[in-house]
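Quick one: structure tokens for this chain, please?
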Amino acid sequence: MDLNAWQDRLDAFAAERGWQPYLNPKNIAMALSVEAAELVELYQWASPEEAAAFGRTEPVQREKVADELADVLLYLLQMARATGIDLEAATEAKFAKNAQKYPVAKA
């Protein structure tokens, strides 16, 4: 997964449509929240068993989940680009912080 290449594709996609004025951290954060909520909505009234089946055995629901996951990822990539945050470095740092915060010995 080449995050920079995907971010470049997103930049080009937005540029072709004249969307750059709208792609600021505030707007992107709001859009990211909406897409995450749309993912939640798919599971809202499902039992744990039904929810587990969505991604594995129900093709229509699986496609809906895949679409929402992709939307969340794309907005996350845009947010990282808009804020100048290197997602790979931030993720590595967060793994290290979580290892300190939640040591195996205390699990």
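Helices lie at 3-17, 25-43, 48-54, 59-83, 87-101.
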